[in-house]
Amino acid sequence: MASKLLRAVVLGPPGSGKGTVCERIARSFGLQHLSSGQFLRESLGGGGEAGALAQQYLERGLLVPDHVITRVMMAELEKRREQHWLLDGFPRTLGQARALDGICQLDLVISLNIPFETLKDRLSARWVHPGSGRVYNMDFNPPHSQGVDDLTGEPLVQRDEDRPEAVAARLRKYKDAAKPVIELYKSRGILHSFSGTETNKIWPYVYSLLSSRIPPILSEEEH
User: Does the annotation mark 120 as catalytic?
Assistant: First the structure.
């Protein structure tokens, strides 16, 4: 493990394969994969102030606002000041990026650029297990049994935001919010963009970039 702590972020629109890339980086380089979605789910049952606040929005069928997600993430990152980590799903807005600046200096930001049509197809085929957040894609990562989660046997759902009619608006919203974040990290010289339609073809380039910063613990093929 390198002596200097590595702090990295993976940015990408919904359906970009961000979670898969993060999992591979975490396994290959020994970084903690910190998912904003996972921390938000955990905070709901944790009894903390931020979790209770998030619960109020969800119970009313509303999106959890940026400032609440920021509070959840800041609390988690404060616990990990002496660890290598990789952020997934945060920051999504300029306000969140500024909050992150307040507690650490990022070393690396990876941006995944995937064509709109590819994202639309992936999202429309996406179903999730609500309890765990596990994601299935009916085209290339289907469940073992149609319509149910592999581990629990509980039913999968298609979120309203993944329905074809909602996907285009969702992607536009992401792009508008992410643009200033991407510009910020580009201006600092820490942004590295990767384009393509298949995660397996993007991965070797991501692996090569990380290998120049931190010694891998698995070879590229072992991910």
Answer: no
Going by pLDDT thresholds of 50, 70 and 90, the confidence category of residue 219 is confident
State the CB neighbour count (10 A cutoff) for residue 40. Answer: 21
- Judge whether 126 counts as a catalytic residue: yes
User: Active site includes 159?
Assistant: yes
Buried b (16+ CB within 10 A) or exposed e, 158-171: eeeebeeeebeebb
- Tens-place pLDDT, residues 161-213: 888 888 888 888 889 999 999 999 999 999 999 999 999 999 999 999 999 99
- Active-site residue 92, yes or no? yes
Contact 203, 223 (CB under 8 A): yes
Does this model's pTM top 0.85?
A: no
Q: Classify residue 219 as exposed, middle or buried by CB count within 10 Å of its CB (0-12, 13-18, 19+).
A: exposed
Q: Can you read off the two tokens belonging to residue 54?
A: 């998030």
CA distance 51 to 180: 28
Nearest to 126 by CA among 117, 114, 140, 138: 138
DSSP letter at 142 equals -
**With 70 as the cut, is the pLDDT of residue 103 above it?**
yes
Could you identify the residue written with the tokens 């046997």?
153
Q: Which residues, at least 6 apart from 187, have a Cβ–Cβ distance to it below 8 Å?
A: none
- CB count, 10 Å around CB of 156? 21
Q: Is 170 a catalytic residue?
A: yes
Q: Which residue out of 4, 81, 98, 159 is catalytically annotated? A: 159
Q: Please identify which of the residues 41, 80, 92, 120 carries the catalytic annotation.
A: 92
